[in-house]
Every structure is written in structure tokens, then in C-alpha cells.
Amino acid sequence: MAHEQFVVITGPEDEQLGHVPFVAEHMAGADLLVVDPVPATLSGKGLSYRVQDEVQCVYDDVLLDRVAAVWDRRPTTLDRHMLEPVHPSCRRYAWSAIQEHTRQFYAQFRDALWVSDHHAVQRAENKVLQLAEATKIGFNVPETIITSDPDAARQFVTNRHAAIVKGLGGETPIIGDTWLLMFSTKVTPDTELDYDNLRYAPAIFQQAIDPEHDLRITVVEDEVFPASVISDAEATETTGVRDWRIGNHLGNLSITECVLPDDVKDKCIQHVRRLGLRFGAIDMIRDKKGTYWFIENNPNGQWAFIEEATRQPIGRAIARLLLSGRG
After folding, report:
1. Phi first, then psi: what are they for 267, rounded to 5°?
2. Which CATH number is 143-208's, of 3.30.1490, 3.30.2440, 3.90.1530, 3.30.70?
3. Other Cβ atoms closer than 10 A to 130
């Protein structure tokens, strides 16, 4: 009897050096297939949908007809340079056709277990929705405004001792061949900001929390893996950055397993479920008074660096969840 198939939708870097190895080691003997729809489409032969008496999906000459579970991770995104062989007059059409072709993939395997449902992930990326759901279940949420209105943003910053400014866009600015990193930054009423350009780059402004430490809390179904994250560069640098990710580039980054109060742990599970997800990487802050603050939930956030640092078995939990999709 043929084995069930387990599909991972992700790119080559994640397959070889990223998150996939942490899960694959707990799925020995399973038919684990890595699928990357955009490169497959551009190869000219890698992805097809056949519709006769039933719908069949073929990827790299493999018929995906026994899919028990799908892990929707981080596939390659369609980039403009990929369309350089196309005549400039046709690139806009090519872009839309490729996007539409790959989009069909996410409507396949309706009887399979998805980690997480693709359309739920897209909806859950909405920052306002995340904060609204966090408030409903009783999380402490910093006062927030997401705006393109210069006057509203200026008033928000002026009325507070300090605020945090975050970029809202999913893309990174590029100057020449240099990618600019955009970190969350602490500002005060005295900080010079070009509010007028918000109309071209709407942003998130939040009440600044005085942190004891940051938290990255990984949720897999009903399992919770909390970690404390401290970047010494936030304290030693004078850039105003309030973002532990700067520790990947400057100074040292300390990541340790920690313990959450039961009510915070339960709220993390609730938040993931209310967003229709099976996985979430939640960012929180514990302030110097011991209060926990919800910041955001990353529906497809990074977690391998947490497992590497703390040895918490996140990959095993995801593998167990995928294998539960077996009939």
C-alpha cells in the first residue's frame, strides 16, 4: 500500500539550512515532499493541474494524490528580476498569470491537515485583527495607531513620554545593491520625524513599554514553547532601535527558555486558534513590573533559532502535528 504524502511548501534555503531539517528528523520513513510553486512554474514543467473526473495536481512529475498533511512554510516569492527574459510589454501579464497559476495550489488537498490553512494565514497577517483579538481575550495591548495621517501620528507621539515606530510594509527598501534593514525604533516628542511622508509609507505607532525582556512564544496547536530574548545592542547602541532582531547584526543575542504564567500560556493558545491557525510565533514583552504585553502574532514566524538556542522540541511538535493528518 502506498504511503501518505506530506507536503512542505517552502524555498530551497529553508529546505536545506532552515526549518525543514528540524521537522524531517522526526518523520523518518514518511514520504516528505518539498514543493516550491514559483520556481516550479518558471521551469516550464514543474506544476500542473489536470481536471477530468477529478482534479489531479502534478509537481515535478510526481502525482500528489495521497497528501495527508501540508506545512505551508515560506516558498519563494515571485520577484521582478525573474521576469527579465519576458518582453517588457508582457511582464505585467506574465506576473499575474504566474501568480494565478501558483495560487491554484492552495486550493488543493482539501481533505488534508494544513499547518496552517493558507487563507487563514493571509487573514491573520492583519495587524489590526491581531490586536483586536488579543484585546478580546484579555491580553494587555499597548495603545496603538496605524496611520498615514501626519497629524494623527504627530499627536500620538507628542502625547506620550515615548513611542515605538514600526514599518508596516512587507518589503525592504533597496538602494543600489544594498538592502536596508527596518527596525522598530523608540521616539520621543523631541525626535525629528518626517511625518509628511507617512502618506507614502503608513506606519505603526505604539505606546513604548519599559521592558525587562522580550519574549518569542512559539505555539504548535496546544503546545507552547516560550523563550526570553535579550539583545544587548538595544541598550548599548545610540540608534534608538527597540527591536531584538538588531542582535543578529550587532552585539550579542541571548535566548533562553522561560516559564509563562498559566493564564498567559492559555491566552497564547486562544489567540492562535481565534485566528484559525495551528501555529503562531507570538512576540510579547514582560515589563519591569512583571506585566505581559502582547505585541504581535507571526502566523508563519521563524522558530528554528529558538530550538537551536533552547533545545525546545518545536520541530518534533510540528512533525507530530503533520503525522496526525494520517487517515
Report:
1. -65, -35
2. 3.30.1490
3. 23
Strand duo 203-207 + 113-115: pairing: unpaired
**What does each C-alpha distance from 326 to 11, 31, 118, 226, 234 come to in angstroms?**
25, 12, 20, 28, 46
Give the whole-number percent of the chain exceeding pLDDT 70. Answer: 94
Angle between helices 262-274 and 127-136 (to 10 degrees): 130
pTM score above 0.90: yes
Q: Are 127 and 296 in contact (CB under 8 A)?
A: yes
The DSSP output letter for 75 is P
Residues 174-228 have pLDDT tens digits of 777 777 777 788 899 999 889 999 999 999 999 999 899 999 999 999 999 999 9
Largest separation between any pair of C-alpha atoms in the chain: 70
3-class SS shares of the chain: helix, strand, coil, % to 5: 35, 30, 40
For the chain, helix (H) and strand (E) counts, in that order, are 11, 18
Domain spanning 120-141+210-310: which CATH class is it, in words?
A: alpha beta
